[in-house]
Amino acid sequence: MGGKKAADADPARSLALLWGSHSKPGRSGLTVRSIVLAAIELADANGLEAVSMRQVADRLEVGTMSLYTHVPGKTELTDLMIDTAFGELYADVDAPSGQPGGWRGALEFIAARNWDLYRRHPWMLHIVGGRPVLGPNATLKYEAELRPLDGIGLSDVEMDSVLALILTHVEGTARLQANMAQTQQDTGMTDAEWWVSNAPLLDKVVDASRFPVASRVGQSAGEEYQAASSPTHALTFGLARILDGVADLIAGRERP
Amino acid sequence: MGGKKAADADPARSLALLWGSHSKPGRSGLTVRSIVLAAIELADANGLEAVSMRQVADRLEVGTMSLYTHVPGKTELTDLMIDTAFGELYADVDAPSGQPGGWRGALEFIAARNWDLYRRHPWMLHIVGGRPVLGPNATLKYEAELRPLDGIGLSDVEMDSVLALILTHVEGTARLQANMAQTQQDTGMTDAEWWVSNAPLLDKVVDASRFPVASRVGQSAGEEYQAASSPTHALTFGLARILDGVADLIAGRERP
DNA sequence: GACCGTACCGTACATCGTACGGCTCGGTTA
DNA sequence: TAACCGAGCCGTACGATGTACGGTACGGTC
Predict the structure, then answer these.
(1) Which among B7, B147, B233 has the least Cβ separation from residue A187?
(2) Which residues bind DNA (chains A, B) (predicted)?
(3) How many domains does chain A have?
């Protein structure tokens, strides 16, 4: 980097870019949209760190600096990538509300959709987003995910809190999943392989007398998952607990 | 980077480094420990991206490449940073179990301790850790945090799952907190300032007819937090729901 | 046919992790 | 004492990165 991490000093510029109408391509066919799509393809295929201005430009067969005509900088590009990816989620705004099982079914659907999104685009988890993106698709997502929580006895702030809780949980377990997959690919070693190769080493170094519970539970979990942890199990187990807790909250609101 | 992100092809090397006894300093006083401490100081003060081999070496008044005599590479260094930071948590292994309020009080204590840790060392949230660190302090932490869950009717795997759920939640909300603080510092703009400067822009672009619930709830939450979200509120609200859900699980185990 | 704004892009700079090869010591042996 | 050797230390170099800056070349309007 040249200097600081300036972030965008001008939020209006970002907003205009996010909500702005599609501009006409210039003489080399370059568009904001084409740049964003190329960046997403790169990130999907090779991970976020493969998305450099040079790589994106190469893919578009264009000079590196030409990108800066359409996009102020890389942070704005990643913002655009995120909002564009969110666009895949809800073609029908009322899809979550239409799920069977009331609010609980809807939240399970929302969790699953977000989980799938992170599976398709793991790079979304590695972007350090200062503030929320506030693009059109992010707003649509917010609307779609709030609707099934409307009118079931929660206050506005509680609706937002419940949704945030679910999304934080999904994001956390998805991050675990993505990191494990990434590492598996980098090292060329399966988690199971890693586990069996590290278990004896660990046993030698962790004595069961000093760490009785940890060694017992770690052993059980390790055998259960054939790894240090299981993201999918963490997702469903955690979601079940959270939804039970939310049910308690709603029941409390119903009978005050 | 020169080539790939090789990660550590040899896990045994990392383990030896983590559990290895302290080595004697050479003729310039350089030690694994001194390197790790310098790196942590840098990260605490200036963020994770300020931790470069050159910066660490400069702080120790030593040539850059001298670090590689003691530490195989940067990934191993960050592993060591993490395990060292974990060492701050539980001087007394039985501290969590000693909390009032049974398992629930203990879990609240654990959540708070981890939250504080991330406040002190926000860089821990930005390290992309492929696999868990498995150092001595990480193991101690695992033991200390599992003990209050032992013997209350949960299976081994359930104990691990409950703990992971709590920790994922804390990490998620702490990441939110850290990102917001970071951005606030980078842009020199308070979240409140950002909110009041973006609210009118957003109103102009998000029409309440297309996004009725989102605009209403977003407005309420924004006014409540004077920001897009409130990490501390998310922490306590989410923790309460989760603990309620865990209570349900335990109750179900008690009366089958 | 002249002009001009905009799209495009080549070069340069500071920064990164680390491979490689050389230097300089402290301690052991002949 | 002299020779030697391994380990600690480090200077240089390479290929990356984001982007500031200044230049080129083109499409559309008079």
Answers:
(1) B7
(2) 52-71
(3) 2
